Amino acid sequence: MPTFIVFALAGLVAQLVDGSLGMAYGVTSTSVLLAAGTAPAVASASVHLAEVGTTFVSGVSHWRFGNVDWKVVGLLALPGAVGAVLGAYVLVNLTEDAAPFMSVILLLLGIYVLVRFSSRTVAAKVVAGPRPGGKLLSPVGLVAGFLDASGGGGWGPVATPTLLASGRLEPRKVVGSVSTAEFVIALSASIGFLFALADEPLDWTTIAALMVGGIVAAPFAAYLVRILPARVLGTAAGGLIILTNTRTLLNALDVPTTALVTVLLVLAVAWIAAIVVAVRSARRERAEHDAATAEVAQA
């Protein structure tokens, strides 16, 4: 029961961040499983099986709050499903110890998420023009789906910033559409893993715990996407991913304990500093927005 609660809390926190940002459930949950000693392919399979439930509830929740553009969902999901199946088979057929490989991918994704949200302004305006089409969405879906299954995460970190950067879709609909399309990716990757890992035992208690935690958080996350500073949540998630996977990678390289602790402490201090910067930036942006609104009201 204590283990179930721990993984349920991990799933809850991961989904709360993912549903609010359109990213981080996979990389966060997979990082936790790898840190607990789970084999890479089994970790990714477990997370994707849990995501079948969490992404379904998340998608319905985002739809209910009006955060979904269904055309974007379709153009992302179909090539994403193909990429996810390919990624599942690639990961299963890697060498026996693929943990360092996955940790490198997750570490890079964590750095990207941290930098993306701590030092740059999250897109807040929509540039005039048509919604993103297949020329953008199909390659993004294929790459994001492949990376999501092979690296244990990557759907959101690839798809969400790309669509935000395009400036052609309202930010809340970027998050909602990416989160909704993820159901198809999770289902496709899960089917691929179940066939590829037919002889590999899965811990269904862990899968259930991650799913339960994610399902509980999904409706709240879909609502919070409108009210919480994405900058702060993204910075927090990125730092957690970096710390967890740096630890896994350094352990795989047999780095001495003293050096390991030193590196983690340095990263922790940098993470805290990034969160402080993110909080201050979010407050400043909020103040500037309120001031601009007040000027418009007085004019």
From TrEMBL:
Which top-rank group of organisms is this from? Bacteria
Q: Which UniProt keywords apply?
A: Cell membrane, Membrane, Transmembrane, Transmembrane helix
Q: What is its main location?
A: membrane
The residues that cross the membrane are 45-65, 72-92, 98-115, 174-198, 204-225, 232-253, 259-279
- Tell me if Membrane is a UniProt keyword of this record: yes
User: Which InterPro entries does the record cross-reference, listed alphabetically?
Assistant: TM_pro_TauE-like, TSUP/Inactive_protease-like
Q: Which Pfam families match?
A: TauE
Task: Classify the protein's membrane topology as the record does.
Answer: Multi-pass membrane protein
Among its keywords, does the record have Transmembrane?
yes
Where in or outside the cell is it found? Cell membrane; Membrane
Q: Which family does it belong to?
A: Belongs to the 4-toluene sulfonate uptake permease (TSUP) (TC 2.A.102) family.
This one is known as Probable membrane transporter protein
